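Re: the request from the purification team.
They wanted to know what the chain is likely to look like in 3D before they choose a buffer screen. I agreed to run a prediction and write the result into the notebook, where they can find it.
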Amino acid sequence: MCQEEKPHAPSCDKNKKPILDCLWPLLKDKSNLLEIGSGTGQHAVFMAPHLKHLTWTLSDIKDRQRGMSLWLREEPIINVKGPILYEIGKNTPHFPKSVKPFDVVFTSNTLHILNWKNVERLFKDLKENLEKETLFIAYGAFKFDGKYTTESNKEFDDWLKEKDTNSGLKNFEDITQKLLENNFNLLEKINMPANNNLLVYKKQ
């Protein structure tokens, strides 16, 4: 019988080390992380063993569950939980719950895939389900003042919109304003390799 091949996202291999280097000082005092839109689960497989002081919970839509399970079956990690089902914009299942409240939510390369309505829904979910002082950390490519930072980001945005006209790079100022409306203040905007950014917010 042929072994089922696990999915692989090349972008995860390229960005996992720079992201971990930035996450480490932010997460050193945290204990319970929820990753939204975990995809293949590669970020958790790489990063969680370096962050043994916290529990890392995977979540994504139904179609992604099998792939993540294959990664975890091959590389079981004691501080990784899930994957659990969470589809933004759906009433069921509701926002992921944990016996111990999540004190950080991380998402990578998801906001540009969501339509703006679901971005707003996600931020409302964060407001309604997270406690004060919880961090929300988003990695990806963004526009600033409505402008692309590089031609490659514009080409990436065009490619996204060809696949789904409702997707595309989001404006940093719009994200920050909408999060502010949901009680999250910007802490840091960190420039990352390959024209990406790591945005760090805290619930007030």
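For the purification team: Helices lie at 10-27, 42-47, 62-74, 116-129, 151-163, 172-181.
Please add any questions underneath this entry.
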